[in-house]
Amino acid sequence: MKPQDESRPNIVLVGFMGTGKTSIGKRLAMQLRMHYVDTDDIIERDSGRRISDIFSEDGEETFRELESEAVRKASKLDNYVISTGGGVVLRESNMTELRRNGIIFCLTATPEEIYRRVRHQSHRPLLQTPDPLTKIKTMLEDRHAYYVKADYMVETTGRSFGEVMAYIKRVFKKC
């Protein structure tokens, strides 16, 4: 992961878990001939640990510190599609860093759709609860004020990858 000589703004994907940031991000990067990076991958590579282990052993605050460091690294890149963890928006400094050289798209979905997409994934530490759907609804409500600070909101419920990517590409080309 090195900064590129060609200066081109990044496409930054934020949003709750299960909204399609990774799946759409990888496809967008390929179609637009951009590079791809996920801040969660940076955290795991730099720490040598899985995110779920960081949460369980050191807690969310330590994870958020590592996440902010990953954001600082990713925001220095050019010509990248950057997928972020769902809580990256909780720190204004993260959004400021990502906005310096990127256009921020927040991917959204209904709580029910998010639950449908992530219910079988055991690597989601924040959903290890008896009632994950209620937890999703609560977290979405708590984070709504942060998510709407993105440059563009993109609903993914009931839309194909192609439809979501077409919208992002149209907006990006105008910027």
Outline the structure in words.
The chain is α/β, with parallel strands linked by helices and 175 residues long. Helix content is 53%, strand content 14%. Strands 2-3-1-4-5 form a 5-stranded parallel sheet, sandwiched between helices. Helix 1 crosses helix 8, helix 2 packs across helix 4 and helix 3 packs across helix 4. It is globular, with a radius of gyration of 15 Å. The two termini are 24 Å apart.
Helical content class: 40-55%
Determine the number of helices (DSSP H or I, runs of at least 4 residues).
Answer: 8
Query: What does the radius of gyration come to?
Result: 15 Å
Overall shape: globular
Entry summary:
This protein has 175 residues and is α/β, with parallel strands linked by helices. The chain has helices at residues 21-32, 39-47, 51-58, 60-75, 92-100, 111-118, 132-147, 161-174, and strands at 10-15, 35-38, 80-83, 102-108, 152-155.
